[in-house]
């Protein structure tokens, strides 16, 4: 999967960081590499836009913030079992995790890593950001699935954010 497969988030560094995190988690699963190994590769070769680089067209994620990207990858690697349990609990009982498209699994894992973070952004921000990312990768029903799964998880993990009036 390359960055050209997703619509680039112009001038949105945090969204670009999340796109890169999804790509890195996808790569880690496909190549059976650790998230730390893939993270270091991305930081060295795919994040930022050095002079002469081709940006998204060359598989780079030029706008990404390394700190956010690395935080998502580290959390996803460290909390992978808890993240997968949360996703499974939010899916219909007859949907095993491996039934999901590999990109969709990576996207949900990145999003849930942020939702489980104690000091992460507000749940609604996380959901909206990953919906934008989902729309960049998918044109079918997948964004609706992302919205439903993330809403279930967010309401369970961050109930206080949904109980208080906006």
Structure report:
The chain has 166 residues and is an all-alpha fold. It has a single domain, classed as N-utilizing Substance Protein B Homolog, Chain A (Orthogonal Bundle). It is built from eight helices and no strands. Helix 2 packs antiparallel against helix 3 and helix 6 runs antiparallel to helix 7. The longest helix has 19 residues. It is globular, with a radius of gyration of 15 Å. It starts with 12 loop residues before the first helix and ends with a helix.
Question: How do you describe this structure in short?
Answer:
This protein is mostly helical and 166 residues long. It has helices spanning 13-31, 35-45, 66-78, 80-90, 102-116, 123-137, 142-157, 159-163. It has one domain (3-157): N-utilizing Substance Protein B Homolog, Chain A, CATH 1.10.940.10.
List keywords for this structure.
mainly alpha, N-utilizing Substance Protein B Homolog, Chain A
């Amino acid at each position: 999967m390359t960055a050209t497969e997703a619509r680039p988030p112009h001038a949105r560094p945090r969204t670009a960081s999340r796109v890169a995190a999804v790509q890195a988690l996808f790569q880690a699963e496909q190549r059976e590499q650790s998230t730390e190994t893939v993270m270091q590769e991305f930081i060295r070769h795919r994040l930022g836009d050095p002079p002469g680089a081709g940006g998204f067209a060359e598989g780079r994620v030029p706008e990404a913030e390394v700190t956010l990207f690395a935080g998502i990858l580290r959390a996803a690697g460290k909390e992978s079992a808890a993240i997968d349990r949360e996703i499974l609990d939010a899916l219909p009982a007859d949907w095993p995790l491996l039934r999901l498209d590999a990109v969709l699994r990576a996207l949900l894992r990145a999003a849930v890593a942020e939702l489980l973070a104690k000091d992460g952004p507000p749940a609604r921000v996380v959901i909206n950001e990953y919906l934008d990312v989902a729309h960049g990768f998918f044109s079918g029903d997948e964004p609706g699935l992302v919205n439903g799964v993330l809403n279930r998880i967010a309401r369970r993990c961050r109930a206080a954010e949904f109980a208080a009036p906006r």
